[in-house]
TrEMBL record:
The keyword Transferase does not apply. SUPFAM superfamilies: Arabinanase/levansucrase/invertase, Concanavalin A-like lectins/glucanases. Residues 329-521 form the Beta-xylosidase C-terminal Concanavalin A-like domain. Keywords: Glycosidase, Hydrolase, Signal. This is CAZyme family GH43. One of its GO terms (molecular function) is hydrolase activity, hydrolyzing O-glycosyl compounds. The active site is at D14 (proton acceptor), E193 (proton donor). The record marks D132 as: Important for catalytic activity, responsible for pKa modulation of the active site Glu and correct orientation of both the proton donor and substrate. GO terms for biological process: carbohydrate metabolic process. It comes from Penicillium angulare. Belongs to the glycosyl hydrolase 43 family.
Amino acid sequence: MSFTNPIIPGFNPDPSIVRVDKDYFLATSTFEYFPGIPIYHSRDLIQWKLIGHALTRTSQLQIHTPEPGGGIWAPTLRYHKGTFYVTAASFSRYRPQEDDRVWPQGFYVQTTNIWNDNCWSEPIYFDQVGFDQDLFWDDDDTVYLSSTYRKLQPTSGVKLKDFAVHICTVDLSTGHSTSEPKLIRESKSGVAEGSHIFKRGRYYYLFTAEGGTESGHCEWVSRSTHGPLGPWELGPNNPLWRNGLEDEVQNTGHADLVEDSQGQWWAVLLGVRPVRRDGRWEESVFGRETFLVPVHWEDDWPIINEGKKISLQTTGPGLYQHVIDVAWRDDFNDPKLQLGWYRKNTPMTTDFTLTERPGHLRLHGGPYNLSVPSSPTMFLRKQSHRFCTWETKMSFVPTSEHTEAGTVLWWNHFTYSSLGLRKNGENRIIRFRSSEDTVVEHVLSLTKEIVLIVECGDQYRFGYREATESDIIWIGTVDNQITTKSPPVGAPFTGMMLGLYAFGERQRCLSPADFSYAEFR
Ligand code: 6LW
């Protein structure tokens, strides 16, 4: 049977998966966004539904002004004796290898009720540093923590990152390591990371992502009969597959495995799907997404996707075609915010309400505009389809020339385009600000409500109309190649989002911005 990849479109890298009876759960990275670590659920590995997040309280997640691509990296989701565990690391800077002092400490949170966000515990921090933490319970219940950090003795003479996988035993009640860290995998590429350890039959397996998350990305396997401390024997066919720069799916790696109830194994992994335009590859607007491929075993070594490259149509036993619907809408009728909205960084104050004006998301804009590293009053959703339209209806009566509310196409605080309403003397104006910082303004002869539209495709086209009119006035476009530019600092680890915002410039908005719906169609 054939099915469509990615199984979770939109930015969802570093997937980690677990099965409990008939239910599969999957977690991905969230970087600088809040809440942290989405938990998706599926019964068939193909259709996934967001059921909550592991980090929803400010006591669990404090990220303030990180570089783009900082924040929460690479969860591992595991289940042991009735309890779910999620590990992660939180970064303020994205390039720890340039400054050994900012290596993060990983942590885990746990719950016995994965269906309820509020049940996840407070974090317990590990004292082994690094990122890409993995937990493995051996048969005697000894717990092993592996993570990636820079080798203490860098390889002499070779300029490598020296990211290597280290392991120790850990006491989960305190997070304290109980053995010396042992290096279990380093790579000639200079990067061995994303470790996941499993046991199958008499073998322990160590999967590692190697070569870095860009074009050199790939996946290796080792196995051991002794245990997680090794010695580890490298597989005969490493890397397990290799997608290249001409393939429709690229940069693939960072795999995690799961066995279904029929004994069939599967791997989830990350990949990007750039688009070929005018003879060259355009960066994917979605960033890194979650893919699924079948795994079978030969001589107790895993063969991923029948040894073939990862592609958009994938074949696997027992699965079926599933088209992910582009249509999504929030009418803000629920007093609780729908799942799938993200804030940039941990919000410091409550700056929104769904109850003050029922049927509306009311934003009380805070003092940060969208260009600063702090947390503005902004709510974002991931873009998951290339061709779609984003639309929202807003009423906003600015009382100051230094406030604005509207809609945003968001990559990071260096590269975003916004369409917002402002006051200019006695006029109200609509202001389009492109990712290249060019500005177009139209004076509005306006009734209260305005519909803001972004058409997504090979470029993003911004338009608006007064709520009582049907004609859209198009005010500006930005090309995808501009919207996906790498930030001057930080990493392009995330993907495109669209959202709603209100801000004052170094002052709060004294009038609220009310949004009556937001939709993708
Ligand atoms: C992830 C790591 C990686 O933790 O990217 O370059 C990080 N490698 O495996 C963020 O997704």
